[in-house]
Amino acid sequence: MTDVSQLKDSYPHVIVGGGEAADAAVRAILDAAPETEVLVVNGSQHPPVGRPALSKTLWMDPDKELTDVYLGTERTGATVVNDAHATALDPERHTVTVEGREISYGRLLLATGSRARRLPDQPESPRVLTLRETEDFVALRPLISEGTEVAVVGGGYIGSELAAGLSNVGARVTLCFPDEKLLAHMLPDSIATHVSEVYGGKGITLESGFRAGSVDVADPERPTVVAEDGRKVIADVVVLALGADPAVELAEDAGLATAEGGVRVDATMATSAVDVWAAGDIAAFPDALFGRRRVEHVVNAGGTGKTAGANMAGAHTEYTDTPMFFSDLFDDGYEAVGLLDTGLETREFWNDDHTAAVIYYLDGHEVRGVLNWNTWDSVGTALETIADSQAGKIGPADLEGRITPGA
To answer: Key word NAD present in the record (predicted)?
Structure first.
């Protein structure tokens, strides 16, 4: 791998970040301009990796190793420098500072992603971890074996996936989450009840209504998670899955415009600074259906990264997608678009044996989100339904039959 000391003083294209968005951008740039030079500043000690595998594939598939989920960015012809951090960006001078070294760029992409949230005054302990970066997985995996007691704190996207994965490799998992039922903030009661039953049936202990306040490491081998109501969960390992915050400090310090907690971009992924683009978790982009927003999911990372890279190479293409997201929860799975919020009205349509459903989330007469539960390859129709609803072409009475559950 390239060392910082080996870098040139100037590159036509510089990408800050080492995730899915960065990899997609590299490939788009080099597809359009194979002879150009691209520098990737990757903050991880490890090569760019497909992050979803850290909470899914590497736990569910015993034949998969970490090296199997590397993205291969370094094999594209780009110069990838690992364990390197950009600490300053000067858009006027077209320079970025990497590990104390100032490098000039022609065009630059910010794909800095997000960082895992921590509890206030969270203690440092090798047995109290998050799971966001490759380093987190590398630290966690050796601690897990048959019978290891693990407390997963947080019942959202990563927490629910990781609990399933840890259980699959034989860990004894306690899943602590704030809702009454697992994923009840986004799944209607019919599905949340089913998911909770499935997880319980897999031997996972569910601690509902649990809002973590602190972690006690007085016993360094057996950390204790303490809830705001005083409940305690003691385990061999604690994994905090409390969500993530976009890493926007570099952009903010450089004076770039921000929105929705991220970096404001137009449809081409261009920021307010000349020759600077942003993609992935940090990009607050104009969604044609839902307005300006950020989306933290691999599908959006790939799409925005590809768009940014193409435009850095001289194209003028726009990101017009409303990105979908998906997850697998043991034998169940879903694909979804829009806002899944059970504070909205929901309409449910099930197949005959009640194993698959299409759920619409409505604000008044307008569809704001669609969940295809065990229902596949219907995201396009879901997007059309949202668009037709916004345009007033259909109402709630017209939803049945738009998508066939289980198809």
So the answer is: yes
Nearest to 394 by CA among 351, 339, 342, 347: 347
Contact call for residues 34 and 124 (beta carbons, < 8 A): no
Name the residue type at position 376: W
Instruction: Encode pLDDT of 208-258 as tens digits.
Output: 999 999 999 999 999 999 999 999 999 999 999 999 999 999 999 999 999
Question: How many residues are there in the chain?
Answer: 407
Query: Taking a C-beta distance cutoff of 8 angstroms, is the pair 134, 43 a contact?
Result: no
Superfamily of the domain at 331-398: FAD/NAD-linked reductase, C-terminal dimerisation domain (3.30.390.30)
Among 287, 281, 316, 286, CA closest to 110: 281
Cα gap 45→25, rounded to integer Å: 20
Considering the four listed CATH numbers 3.50.50.60, 3.40.50.1100, 3.40.50.300, 3.30.565.10, the one that applies to the domain covering 4-115+245-312 is 3.50.50.60
pLDDT per residue as tens digits for the range 50-77:
999 999 999 999 899 999 999 999 999 9
Q: What percent of the chain lies above the pLDDT cut of 70?
A: 100
The SS3 assignment for 382 reads helix
